[in-house]
Amino acid sequence: MTAPAAVRDAFGRLRQWLTQDALPLWWARGADHAQGGFVDRLTLDGLPAAGFAKRVRVQARQAYVFGLAETRGWMSGADYACQHGLAGLASMRRADGLYRASTPGPPAPLDGMGLLYDQAFVLLALDTGRAVFADARYESEADDLRERLEAFAHPMGGFAEAPGILSPLFANPNMHLFESFEAWSEVAADPRWRELTSSQARLALDRLIAPDEGVLYEAYGADWRPPAMRVVWPGHLYEWAYLLLRWRGGDGAARTAAMKLIETAERTGVDRARGVVVFALDGELAPIDRGARLWAQTERLRAVAHAASLTDEATLWEAAIQASTALEAFLDTPTPGLWRDWMDEAGAFREEPAPASSLYHIVGAIAELEQIVEG
Questions:
Q1: In 3-state terms, what secondary structure has residue 65?
Q2: d(Cα 113, Cα 54) in Å, to the nearest integer?
Q3: Which pLDDT score, from 0 to 100, does residue 211 have?
Q4: pLDDT (0 to 100) of residue 247
Q5: How far apart are CA 83 and CA 257, in angstroms?
Q6: How many Å apart are CA 62 and CA 26, to the nearest integer?
């Protein structure tokens, strides 16, 4: 199906921004060419922001971003930048085979974005290394990490935050494990990757997603039951929907669930006045945080554009156009190639450094548009 002219035009602007501004800037300024790895944030002047430690997820995500840039032909020398990220990641591998920050900070809050979350992105980066460099070492390292994660497995499916922690359980890291398992299942002969992918999909379809409401929550109890205080991030409804739609093992039930997630997010999670996805809803799907994060706009764009390419529904194409407009507003910064991370309820952006981790979300949306527009 042919995307509307407005979608094609938005893709052209976004790819130009990515290839001419963002990728060169984050390699020149965001890579630590002296100490290794990538810095956590750049100021809006395009300089490394002080006071932020290097994180596992940033090394992994930047390796993925530049690896994708290499395979898509977006940047000359992207393979070298990818290798730089992989080397930074390798330096964070510890004696137990898990990956942790080189400079540990205070104990991380139990919020679903800790140890398990980081390992999911390590797996994605290792898959990128295998794709770019055709090096069997990366598959061996991924196999080893997969075995280490068995200690995190929950008896009812999915994975806990760390061994021995049965509550609370979080959807977010399990979503990214689904993403990484699927990436490996597409290229590796080992059937365990496909089994793990299917298991994560079944976790979502059978335990996480409330089918009638078309919603899933951020946190769950020890038996994967929703807690009394329920929180929904609409951005994650789009993200789960996209991954379920792209799942190679998916069936009609997966597609129905994914489309329902998109419908719910569009109906309850978008502030029509600003044209943005809001940050958080309560269990009744009423807004509890009307601020807007950049990443949620990218996930809306990716999900609705992909769904529109499958159905050719006008409302989905319109949503994609609105989402691209919102994303471009976040990318309008004094230094081209950077972005704003937070918009408040009144539509004003916070003045703060741009987090490197967001580039993963941005390139995901642009890559999907490229597939839709150019095939």
A1: helix
A2: 15
A3: 87
A4: 98
A5: 38
A6: 9
Cα–Cα distance for residue pair 228/17, rounded to 1 Å: 44
Interval 280-332: pLDDT, tens: 999 999 999 999 999 999 999 999 999 999 999 999 999 999 999 999 999 99
Q: How many CA atoms, within 13 angstroms, populate the side-chain half-sphere of residue 296? A: 25
Local structure of 58: helix, strand or coil: helix
- Among 303, 183, 292, 316, CA closest to 237: 303
Residue with tokens 């009144």: 346
Mention every residue, 6+ apart, whose C-beta is less than 8 A from residue 374: none
Assigned token pair, 130 = 């295998």
Q: Compute CA distances 48 → 35, 60, 95, whole Å.
A: 13, 18, 30
DSSP 8-class letter at 353? P
Report the pLDDT value the prediction gives residue 334, as an integer from 0 to 100: 95
pLDDT at 113: 84
In the predicted model, residues of the chain with pLDDT beneath 50 are none
User: Cα separation of 11 and 5, whole Å?
Assistant: 10
Distance CA 197, CA 206 (A): 14
Q: pTM of the full predicted structure?
A: 0.97
Strand blocks (E) in the chain = 41-42, 169-170, 219-220, 231-232, 270-271, 276-277, 280-282, 287-289, 292-293, 342-343, 354-355
Assign residue 210 a region (left: φ > 0; alpha: ψ between -120 and 50; beta: otherwise).
beta
Strands 219-220 and 231-232: unpaired
